[in-house]
Amino acid sequence: MHRLFSALSAAAAFALLLASVAQADADRPIEAILEPVQLTERVHYFYGSIEARTPLNLGMNNNVGFVVTDAGVVLIDSGPSYQVAAKIAEAVAAVTEQPITHVVNLGSQDHRWLGNGWFQDQGAEIVALQRTAETQERFGETHLNRLIRVLGEEAMAGTDPVTAPAPIDADRHAFEVGGVPFELLFVANAHFPGDSMLHLPTDEVVFTGDVVYTERMLGIHPQSDPVGKLESFRKLEELDPAIVVPGHGAATDLATARRDTGDYLETLIREVRAGLEDWESLDETVERIAELPPFQHLLHYDDWHRVNVNRTYLFLEASQ
């Protein structure tokens, strides 16, 4: 943890420590979620609920970050709704008088971008890779309707699936705001197709989106690419940041990200491949690796691990 804490002020380190042990109170109201945690002099994040989307957290069970520069604030992801986006902006305004000028979308799940419309209405530039925007367009209405069912129409009032009007047709996009360099990177399809990461090289921070989960078990969805997710994680290791801000779970160091995500993906893919090579059935593979003690500390292990084995088996079988 040395590099992590050397990059933080004492107050920010203490706040981060508190966040890292918040699992006992995993679902928190939106007001508690929108208490910013300072990571470096200019980098902050909102530590999202690590439970499911609920009326209490208003669907914000993910992390959202922001970077204060001399030319404005760069927001990393925009929240799950028009109304939560407004609350995010209010929370940022309590930290700085700088306006939010850019909103970077790292992924296509609802909580990463359905707040885009509010920020676009305020004049912010929405920044996303073409791959990400295409997946947002594919799943936008489905994800919006799911949130309406979970949170209610009132909570989602005003929310529309607004994607970046000029997405970047590249896998790497370097840009600068107020003298601060940013690098938006796509490595491979991960949690969803088009997932990307945002690297702040001078701050030694990477916002990973859904490439990394800490504290809670990651999920493999029908649209997920577990092999691509691992490839993306390995790129994160090459960047070697002091601070990793995962898509879900407390911001941390690279070693903890490796423990909670990298090691799990390595184990999952290796063991499922071994089962396929030995002509195991899907059920046999699931039963053989149903209990993985190194990962049972993760919240929702019992809900997700068998599902992850099942979907990884089907993915790798189809890839043969």
Automatic annotation (TrEMBL):
Signal peptide extent: 1-24
Domain Metallo-beta-lactamase as annotated: residue spans: 61-248
Entry keyword annotation includes Iron-sulfur: no
Superkingdom of the source species: Bacteria
InterPro entries cross-referenced by the UniProt entry: Metallo-B-lactamas, NDM-1-like, RibonucZ/Hydroxyglut_hydro
SMART domains given in the database record: Lactamase_B
UniProt keywords, alphabetically: Signal
BP-aspect Gene Ontology terms: antibiotic catabolic process
Coiled coil feature spans: none
Claim: Signal is one of the keywords in the record: yes
Family: Belongs to the metallo-beta-lactamase superfamily. Class-B beta-lactamase family.
Protein name stated in the entry: Beta-lactamase
